[in-house]
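Q: Here's a chain of 245 amino acids. Please give me its 3D structure as tokens.
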Amino acid sequence: MSLVPVCGPEGPIRVTAASTAPRPAAVRAVLFDFSGTLFQIGTYEDRIRAALADPVDDATMDRLLNGLEANLSHPDVIEAQRARDVSSKAHRHAFTTWYASVPELAPCAEALYEQLRAPEQWLPYADTASTLARLTQSGLPLGVVSDVGWDLRATFAHHGLDRFISAWVHSYEHNTEKPDPFLFRYACRELGADPSGTLMVGDHPAKDGGAVGAGLRSYVLPAGAAPGSLRGLDAVLRLAGLASA
């Protein structure tokens, strides 16, 4: 008799002790995404005003932002996003192509991209530092797994948060992107952690949630948090078996 239960569309037809899922292993290590998870860059409005030589009134700004939004579906912009994070060159090309798709922003496309690389442009969420500190104090090793085109250590160091991170996995250094299982498994090896006891935290269901395919568990945060706001990272503490206070 097979030990694997026969399942209907909603679940097992017969539930027995043999088909009861085992209790998950305790969380022994945590991996984090970067943008939208621990940090968020300043608003596009502020970045555009800083990059343009002349002042921008509200009506013009609204038009520029509308252009960026609309051009996300432009064929040239879509094509530039393919394999965006596999190299520094591809990453720069993807973003500058998008910025330059709005004619008024084309002259400052490179300046807007350099803002991405500037540590001072990024803001940790209000609960980032406390969450990283609590996890570290509890003995859990932490890593960063990010689809990105540059080294993130300087950004974390600028905000005094690099001391919490023991493994850095940047997609551009490995010529691949999440959800490639290699990136998650590489991070686990760097931490000396078993994937089954490692939690991946991010904000992208397909990319960060893809850690499950590498044998990890995953927690995906809702998108859209404002820069510097509370991100809801207290949920990570609960998943790790720690009180949020």
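Q: Can you summarize the key feature?
A: The mean pLDDT is 93.
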